[in-house]
Amino acid sequence: MTLPDFASEFLTLFVMAFALGMDAFSIGLGMGLIQLRMKQIFYIGLTIGIFHFIMPLLGIGMGRLLSEKFGMFATYVGGALLLFLGIQMIYSSFKKGEDILIKPVGFGLIVFALSVSLDSFSVGLSLGIFGAKTLLTVIVFGAVSMVLTWISLLLGRRVQGLLGSYSEVLGGSILLAFGIKLLLPF
Fold it and tell me: Which range is most confident: 9-13, 18-22, 30-34, 88-92?
């Protein structure tokens, strides 16, 4: 592969990764509105980056199998997970003093990362069919989504200080809106 070919493929993958990472960015803004420590922000971004590495890798591996059927399934599962997380966040904002059902740690972090990385699985299916360079693809997807997540969580953390108690409702509303967007594309 020549340098211009590599640069062209890298640019194409970067743009795709940026588009996929914008889901994580937008949702990270909402998630950043709950009180998170810097250590949590680091692990959330790292986990989402890892999921955006693994999911397209799995997708590329299965690229020639069931691409159309899995693509819509992944979108619906991701939308349902985001709806659930958004409703849970809004509900928990009115129940101060009670533990929220899903937090961005442990299993809750896995659910969050899975919900924002399912679309990269679908893209991986398509890229597998077209013969994209696997290692380059998954590294670019993982790195871009990780950095975008860190940026959004830090921005959300700043906004949280300005909004106070309403920040969790706003964050849940953002997650809910993205879940609806995935389930009802318009």
Answer: 9-13
Based on its alpha-carbon atoms, the radius of gyration of the chain, rounded to whole angstroms, reads: 17
d(CA 30, CA 8): 34
Give dist(CA 10, CA 28) in Å, integer: 25
- The pTM (predicted TM-score) of the whole model is 0.70
Query: Please, what sign has the CA dihedral across residues 162, 113, 146, 40?
Result: positive
**Residue 133 in tokens:** 């360079």
d(CA 122, CA 25): 18
List the one residue out of 48, 182, 60 whose CA is nearest residue 123: 60
Q: Is the dihedral of CA 110, 158, 156, 171 positive or negative?
A: positive
Confidence of residue 25 (pLDDT cuts 50, 70, 90): confident
Nearest to 142 by CA among 26, 37, 13: 13
